[in-house]
Task: structure prediction
Amino acid sequence: MERMSFDLAQVTLRELNSFLHKEAPAKGVHQVVVANPDGAHNIAVGLDCPVDVEVHGHAGYYAGGMNKTGTVTIFGSAGTGVAENMMSGRVHVKGFASNGAGASMHGGLLVIDGDAGLRCGISLKGGDIVVGGSVGSFSAFMAQAGRMVVCGNAGDALGDSLYEAVLYVRGSIKSLGADAQIEPMTEADYATVKELLDAAGMQHDPHDFKRVASARSLYHWNADADQEY
Amino acid sequence: MCGIVGLLVKKPALRPRLGELMVPMLIGMTERGPDSAGLAVFTEPLAETMRKISLYSGMSEEGADFNWLGLGHELKAHLGIEATIAAQGNHAILTAAIAPEPVKRWIRERYPKLHILSTGRSIDLYKDIGTPGEVAARYAFSGLAGSHLVGHTRMATESAVTPDRAHPFTAGEDFCLVHNGSLSNPYGVRRMLEPHGIRFETDNDTEAACRFLEWRLREGDDLETALQKGFEELDGFYTFLMGTADKLALIRDPFACKPAVVAETDDYVAIASEFRSLAHLPDIKHATVFEPAPEEMYVWNA
Result:
């Protein structure tokens, strides 16, 4: 038994997730197809075995959250917090994603073909996010490590209070957040953008992207700044 | 939390099915709002001179045994008004050729425990405590007909769980609003409105938003201008869905703290807090589904 199908109009989400956590690794099932997700929350969360999950429809909150080693592909949109706290593996949203996509991710690759909502990659701790469309305001807020590629535009306060995460934006940036700055692209940056676009299956010229990173002026307390950054 | 649902059917042939299409949407938002539920349905408008008033007797001693027939007799005896009263338990819709304000004043004086839910030529309003499923069954929501509706499931955070604090809130005529979120300046808004003679019925934060926007409309703003002033004056977290006699309107706060998703086909526009509530609509697999952007206005015409 290599492949299993779950119709969430017929079986409960608990049955699906329990199968993914217990039976899939025990029985060596490597492919699971989910029909009629109908916006259910927590689809395929906490994957801890090398399984490929296809979700055919719109997913609710936290789809593919805490993923480790799994591959989750959503043929539809994803609700709040898709791939939040992903450790490794890959989550691919073919439609749009709501707020907080990839929040607090530690590793792995999150690909969103459409737009992402607000706070995409908030508190990113590692791993990569590639967004084919635009990201909403406050994206990469306090992002500590990892990389984010945005093929469309960015909303307000991009990269506010950034640490060591690096952002690449192809389109316009409505405004930069505190301590975020546009920096010159180096050869290494072009290579990084190309690598991530290739991994996401997107085709753009890396030379069209801008680099946004931390100016690091918030790293040390400055009593003279008078809270003006 | 709280859940919001809205539905506007584009084809007159679908109007008789409005309630039936909406009930699964409302029940789909039970986890977001298990303590109360309500909805406003907009029907074909009455003639210019006619008004209908939705009334709720659940907070009176008589409750569902309220003497609606007696109310009709009193209206005739005291005000000389021939009203039809379509009653169902603790709920009734009073229809008559009236100037509504004097009649409402009389009702408030004569029946202080009777709650006036809505007034207009098009709006009928129902709200009560209980799960969305219970409230939908209590008032037979599945049989409601109309061009568009605004519904809400409540998980109270800012005021007590009582029928009058459930949503939708109304103000003026043929206007209602539902809210997911919490306002941070409702008392400032109330203090600003009260000197204009605007009277509040509850301590609920949403009522401030509802009366603010209706006041702007009454002062002559069009819906878009009123909503723009809402963005400027109302502080806090909100997704607001509003209904007027011929429109549905949606706005989200600049931080998009509270969710909303829209599905549109040739037959309908459906709005809900989450896709879960849209999943069972006809032809949903071919609908255009999108998330409304923060601080944008979305207005759909019935």
About this structure: The two ends of chain B are 28 Å apart (CA to CA). The domain at 47-121 of chain B is CATH 3.30.70.100 (Alpha-Beta Plaits). Chain B touches chain A at residues 254-256, 259, 261, 274-280, 285, 289-291, 293-294 (CB under 8 Å).
